[in-house]
Amino acid sequence: MRLVVKFNLVLLVIFALGFAAAAAVSTSLLERSAREDVLQDARLIMESALATRAYTINQVAPLLKKLGDNEFLPQTVPAFAATEQFEALHSKLQDFSYKEATLNPTNLRDRAADWEVDIVNSFRQSPQRTEIVGERETPLGRSLYLGRPIIIRDAACLSCHSTVEAAPKSMIQKYGPANGFGWRLNETVGAQLVSVPMTLPISRANRALYTFLAFLAGIFLAVFVALNAMLRWIVVQRLATLSRLADEVSLGKIDGPDFPASGQDEVSGLAQSFNRMKKSVAHAIKMLEE
Fold first, then answer.
1. How far apart are CA 195 and CA 192, in angstroms?
2. I need a labelling partner for 44 at 20 to 30 A (CA). Which of 109, 225, 227, 268 fits?
3. Average pLDDT of 195-221?
């Protein structure tokens, strides 16, 4: 096997291993970065919902209650306000979702789906948990969700959710007496859930990965061509010339030109040794002829 072929095979093996390692590391880093970006979006939506809840509790609800003490106004309910606020935002972010998933809600639109029930139960089983982050498959692709528990901290909430008898009659007329009762203080009744699609961030990460790998392959190709040119010019051609001259000497042609031996590299050292050997052979033949 020729020297150039061996050199190129070794170079290709090194590149293949390095390319595979770079692809694996880059994929992991880019997907992690994309996931962090999605999680940041989810936290922004969550904080927006929490701000709406706080605004409703502290400023909207007191004013609306003064306008109609005998009428139940859903706008005074923090969960209703946060959900409505996101619905207005949903027209711009159609793939995003926000839900106050509740096991036993007054408003049936807040009833937890099967996968949401699992998250609520996780909070109920582990009261110390304040946040759950996970991924799930949806018809639109992978989606990341962020969940935080809904815990009854304020006894005032029980005026609407403890028993049917204690609840405002106007609320029962609106939502009925079948749902949203039996809540207890410090009980986890649901979870705030934000779902953010990962399709776009992952596609961006993939494009960045392909661009990086193409750039890496281009660099390797340039290095591959440059190294082959240098190997042929610095080593292969000089060794080929030295091999041809050695063949001529072996056939008795010792009056040919010396091999160019300028330089300080190994091939130059070999050429100098060859030239000395050639002179020694010529001198020995001359002594034998005399």
1. 10
2. 109
3. 88
Helix (H, G, I), strand (E, B) or coil at 181: coil
Tokens of 60: 């909207």
User: What does the pLDDT read at residue 262?
Assistant: 67
What is the predicted pLDDT for the residue at 49? 86
Residue 136: which H helix or E strand, with range?
strand 132-138
Q: Which residues contact 182 (CB under 8 A, 6 or more apart)?
A: 104, 161, 162, 163
Kindly tell me if the per-residue pLDDT of 69 is higher than 60: no
Task: Confirm if 11 and 227 have CB atoms less than 8 A apart.
Answer: yes
Q: Is the pTM of this model over 0.85?
A: no
Q: Is the pLDDT of residue 143 over 90?
A: no
Q: What is the pLDDT of residue 6?
A: 80
112 vs 122: CA distance, rounded Å:
13
DSSP 3-state percent helix, strand, coil across the chain (nearest 5)? 65, 10, 25
Residues in contact with 239: Cβ distance below 8 Å, sequence separation at least 6, in sequence order: 3, 267
Partnered with residue 149 across adjacent β-strands are 191
Q: Where are the beta strands (DSSP E) in 105-253?
A: 132-138, 141-151, 188-197
Tokens of 105: 């809600």
- Cα-based torsion angle of the residue sequence 117, 118, 123, 129 in order, rounded to the nearest 10 degrees: -140
Query: First and final CA of the chain: distance in angstroms?
Result: 44
Give me the residue label for tokens 């007191």: 62
For the chain, what is the mean pLDDT? 82
The residue type found at 169 is: K
